[in-house]
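User: Hi! I have a protein structure encoded as tokens and I'd like to know what sequence might fold into it. I'm fairly new to this, so please keep things simple.
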């Protein structure tokens, strides 16, 4: 992050701490900033050198808002949010169901006049304002109690995945290349793909395509979708008036929503899909949601298995995918085994990255990145060998003291050999397993490891006590979550 971005983040963030005294959460604050930033930037775009018509009706423009104070400001701001939420397109996406959460008009006035109005956002480089907004999202995710961490994938991991997947430029009408994230959260994967493509030599048509049609996200939660849309907008991605919106707000698992050349995604953790209903006795109970789809190999309520099947369905022939998946996807029997058998058969499942613990804001998560390419129908299975890189054994990370850096993934990126993955070589952490060997394993279990865990072998190699304590806490949290799931199941 540049110095200017860091200064903006600090300035905006310091003010958030004042608003926290009024009971405003970090998430609420970032959301209010999003609304105000959008209004301010739309106003800036109407002036030279841009001279664009504003999508915002005149009576709700920034110039009206910035002149008001006290109750008048609060009432006008509330009406503005309500009205813009009813509009179609990008306005509706950003303002849908928007509410003013800043109850004190004096504090709202300070946010409008001192913090947002003082900065000329449109003239800032996309790197500066984009980084600043990303910085706010990261701080929001770090507030573990707020639960926003579930929408935030560690950026160094995203960068490494994009670096090995190497999304290509595309252009209308000839060369389509759409990158989709069906669980896009605040847009980390989409923006890293945008950044990767932008660094290549692009002609005008390719750049226009990148900023209007090349990135597609689906997000279930309104509030998160608006943060994602704003994040994309600040980085220069805006749907043309005639192009579809970059973000769809819907349940991705409900049905296929297109076919794409590349899918990069970290679907939500949490094992079951469920909804809360009120039963006849007036008590709340969870009802398990089993996804029934004709284009799925197995019917299950396991959300991750459903996302894995969904990703396969939305890939074009020869389309490529990278999906973050928890360990249960690798070893669970029943539907899990069915999905793994079919995936190995119908696509080339070529790489698995075993991720270390302590890198996700959702605690106790043991996860992996699975890389596969969809292939045309064939008698012969498409997977010939699965290469596994173990970044977990003897690796210890925490969210505060020892955070995951992009450099920790350098060796993985080198081993992946994205230029030509048929020229890979094995090393201590990178091993190759032929298809026949995988099939012989009980339930086609892909949870494979071979390195000796040094902390089990030799007590002098134990990590620091604080790291150990965190790991134990994470294990216990994960176990509690599993017991809670079992208890829910026993009730039904």
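Assistant: Happy to help. Inverse folding works backwards from shape to sequence: for each of the 492 positions I chose a residue that suits the local structure. Here it is:
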């Amino acid at each position: 992050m540049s110095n200017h971005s860091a200064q903006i983040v600090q300035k905006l963030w310091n003010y958030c701490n004042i608003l926290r005294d009024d009971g405003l959460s970090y998430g609420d604050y970032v959301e209010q900033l999003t609304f105000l930033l959008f209004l301010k930037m739309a106003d800036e775009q109407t002036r030279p050198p841009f001279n664009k018509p504003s999508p915002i009706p005149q009576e709700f423009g920034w110039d009206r808002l910035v002149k008001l104070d006290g109750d008048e400001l609060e009432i006008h701001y509330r009406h503005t949010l309500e009205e813009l939420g009813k509009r179609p397109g990008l306005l509706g996406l950003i303002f849908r169901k928007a509410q003013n959460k800043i109850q004190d008009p004096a504090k709202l006035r300070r946010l409008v006049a001192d913090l947002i109005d003082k900065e000329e956002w449109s003239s800032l480089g996309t790197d500066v304002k984009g980084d600043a907004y990303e910085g706010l999202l990261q701080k929001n995710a770090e507030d573990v109690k707020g639960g926003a961490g579930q929408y935030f994938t560690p950026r160094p991991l995203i960068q490494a995945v994009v670096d090995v997947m190497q999304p290509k430029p595309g252009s209308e009408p000839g060369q389509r290349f759409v990158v989709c994230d069906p669980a896009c959260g605040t847009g980390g994967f989409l923006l890293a793909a945008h950044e990767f493509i932008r660094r290549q030599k692009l002609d005008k048509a390719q750049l226009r395509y990148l900023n209007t049609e090349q990135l597609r996200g689906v997000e279930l939660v309104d509030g998160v979708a608006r943060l994602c849309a704003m994040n994309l907008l600040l980085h220069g991605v805006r749907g043309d008036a005639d192009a579809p919106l970059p973000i769809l707000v819907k349940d991705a698992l409900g049905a296929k929503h297109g076919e794409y050349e590349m899918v990069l995604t970290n679907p939500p953790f949490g094992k079951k899909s469920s909804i809360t209903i009120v039963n006849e006795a007036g008590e709340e109970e969870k009802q398990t949601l089993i996804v029934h789809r004709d284009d799925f190999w197995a019917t299950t309520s396991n959300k991750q298995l459903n996302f894995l099947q969904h990703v396969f369905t939305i890939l074009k022939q020869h389309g490529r995918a990278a999906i973050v998946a928890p360990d249960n996807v690798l070893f669970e029997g029943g539907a899990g085994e069915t999905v793994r058998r079919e995936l190995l058969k119908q696509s080339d499942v070529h790489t698995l990255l075993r991720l270390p613990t302590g890198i996700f804001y959702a605690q106790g998560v043991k996860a992996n990145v699975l890389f596969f390419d969809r292939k045309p129908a064939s008698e012969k299975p498409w997977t010939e060998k699965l290469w596994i890189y173990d970044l977990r054994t003897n690796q210890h990370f925490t969210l505060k003291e020892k955070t995951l850096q992009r450099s920790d993934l350098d060796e993985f990126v080198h081993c992946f050999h994205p230029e030509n993955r048929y020229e890979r070589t094995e090393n201590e952490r990178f091993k190759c397993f032929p298809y026949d060997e995988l099939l012989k394993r009980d339930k086609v279990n892909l949870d494979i490891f071979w390195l000796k865990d040094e902390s089990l072998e030799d007590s002098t190699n134990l990590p620091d006590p604080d790291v150990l304590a965190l790991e134990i806490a994470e294990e216990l949290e994960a176990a509690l979550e599993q017991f809670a799931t079992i208890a829910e199941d026993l009730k039904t």
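A useful reference point when you look it over: Confidence is low (pLDDT under 50) at residues 273-278. Feel free to ask if any position seems puzzling.
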